[in-house]
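Loading example: each entry is read as two labelled lines plus one structure line.
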Amino acid sequence: QVQLVESGGGVVKPGGSLRLSCAASGFTFSDYYMYWIRQTPGKGLEWISYINTGDNTMYYADSVKGRFTISRDNAKNSLYLQMNSLRAEDTGVYFCARDLRRKVSSWYMNFWGQGTLVTVSS
Amino acid sequence: QSTLTQPRSVSGSPGQSVTISCTGTSSDIGAYNYVSWYQHHPGKAPKLIIFDVNARPSGVPDRFFGSKSGNTASLTISGLQTEDEADYYCCSYAGSYTFHVLFGGGTKLTVL
């Protein structure tokens, strides 16, 4: 069955960096667009970024543009999120998710991981 | 880049129906039919329950119904069950200029 397992969260000081990973299994990873979404305290879900199947098209929310970088390694069935210049408001649970449809972006996420907690605090 | 507007909470008794609204703009909900809804039990992975405004993924019961009128989308849950108690988020594509995805602020459904 489809599984997405995030890792790499933790506590980091403002201005610091973290790299999140998402290990995918149970489907042909290279066939699907992938997303990062976060849930911040009191603010609900927020779309962060998405990447196409070929690792050559990426989009970011304005709140993270220039600080976060999404990437993928199809050979390792893995999705990544490099987070730099972290701020207190980046604190939250970060989810990776898979698109509903193969080889296209449907803008729907039908499989999600359990999330990894990122805390930005001095 | 703003969020879609949802009521913070709704409630209903088992067997009743509730409707959750989601208000956007003519640039997102009003412009596209890429509207979806997610059910989130805290501590678990969010679950897609509605896509394409009113389509249900396999396994989602037909008690969940999505609709859209103008800039507002709605989720109606009929025959409320205790396991429906969760947070519900609407979501919309926000256009090919930004390629952004917008979520609503979330609505806490309490089944009394």
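The two ends of chain A are 40 Å apart (CA to CA).
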